[in-house]
Amino acid sequence: MAGNFYKVQCPDCDNEQVVFGKAATEVACAVCGATLARPTGGDAEFEGEVIETVERRSASSRTESDETVEAQ
Ligand SMILES: [Zn+2]
């Protein structure tokens, strides 16, 4: 499978940051510097909670956060 991006919530400061699923180096939180992901040789191991999968680079798009709920 192609590598996806994941939106990970920092366990320390709740910052939400998009991290490459196969990160080859440790990824640190841009706000507080906590480690969000560490490389394992395959899929990275995430330290924070993965709250969303981002299949492509669409950092400024938030269209999927307002999903229409089917009524009735
Ligand atoms: Zn943080």
Automatic annotation (TrEMBL):
GO MF entries = structural constituent of ribosome; zinc ion binding
The entry's free-text remark on the cofactor is: Binds 1 zinc ion per subunit.
Per its UniProt record, the required cofactor names are: Zn(2+)
Q: Which InterPro entries would you find in this protein's record?
A: Ribosomal_eS27, Ribosomal_eS27_Zn-bd_dom_sf, Ribosomal_zn-bd
Residues that hold Zn(2+) according to the record: C10, C13, C29, C32
Region ranges (Disordered) = 52-72
Listed Pfam families: Ribosomal_S27e
Keyword Ribosomal protein assigned to the entry: answer is yes
Which residue spans match zinc fingers labelled C4-type?
A: 10-32
Family label: Belongs to the eukaryotic ribosomal protein eS27 family.
User: What is this protein's name?
Assistant: Small ribosomal subunit protein eS27
**UniProt gene name:** rps27e
